[in-house]
Design brief:
Blueprint lengths: L8 H18 L1 E4 L5 H16 L4 E2 L17 E5 L6 H21 L3 E11 L5 E4 L9 E8 L12 E4 L8 E4 L6 E5 L5 E3 L6 E10 L7
Antiparallel strand pairs: 1-9, 2-3, 3-4, 4-11, 5-10, 6-9, 6-11, 7-8, 7-10
Bound molecules: N-oxalylglycine and manganese (II) ion (MN).
Length: about 220
């Protein structure tokens, strides 16, 4: 089997620099075509295959003893082990490693690792408005969501609704979960929710973490 070539490096560096600058200036960033279409397709096929083999689990809330709360979130997830991934999924983690280093170089956030899961939202599934940090912990610092859905149209719903100004909940940005789009934001500051969709919706969501709690939240 032939392996997918990595994204062109200078192009990836430029994209990572753009994301880091947007994080610094406005706290969030939406990037289209973050990876080449064939890599996105291979990740989607990997996710669909894992789904068919029953590898996904009902998603939980909080840390430690995860509580399944289908009135808050009704997606199913598969946690990924970056060190054990290959092919297109490994190419994704390599690109995110470039992003981690760029953010650390430009924003001094001291991000040291990345945890990530694939998520499937069956038609009608949702994730109500929330913040990604657990109560009493600000280790999760930067959220990324990467979308895998081919031919996604506005009428399919499933938007990520990002509350772009914490002081004004009326200011929202709805992002379509279209294949290749990467959304990045500061985990402790931006509320967001996943609106229900009429189609199955696939995403790869992850968090860059700090090693130690920051003194102020
Ligand atoms: C999450 C989340 C957003 C998405 O898993 O915390 O908000 O668009 N996901 O999948
Ligand atoms: Mn979230």
């Amino acid at each position: 089997m032939h392996t997918t070539p990595p994204a062109h490096h200078s192009e990836l560096d430029t994209t990572c620099h753009h994301i880091a600058s947007q994080l610094a200036s406005q706290g969030w960033c939406v990037t289209g075509d973050f990876l080449a279409a064939d890599i996105v397709r291979d990740i989607r096929e990997y996710a669909q295959h894992a789904w068919r083999t029953g590898a996904f689990r009902q998603a939980g809330i909080g840390q430690g003893k995860l509580e399944v709360q289908p009135d808050i979130r009704s997606d199913q997830v598969l946690w990924l082990e970056p060190a054990q991934c290959d092919g297109a999924v490994a190419a994704y983690f390599a690109a995110l490693e470039c992003l981690r280093q760029t953010i650390n170089r430009e924003l001094y956030l001291g991000l040291f690792d990345y945890e990530a899961h694939l998520a499937i939202y069956a038609p009608g599934s949702f994730y109500k408005k929330h913040l990604d940090q657990f109560r009493g912990s600000n280790l999760r610092t930067v959220t990324t969501t990467f979308y895998l859905n081919a031919d996604w149209q506005p009428q399919h719903g499933g938007q990520l609704r990002l509350y772009t100004h914490s002081e004004d909940p009326a200011r929202q940005l709805d992002v379509l979960p279209a294949a290749g789009t990467l959304v990045t934001f500061l985990s402790g500051e931006y509320y967001h929710e996943v609106l229900p969709a009429t189609r199955e919706r696939l995403s790869l969501t992850g968090w860059f973490r700090r090693r130690e709690m920051a003194s102020t939240v």
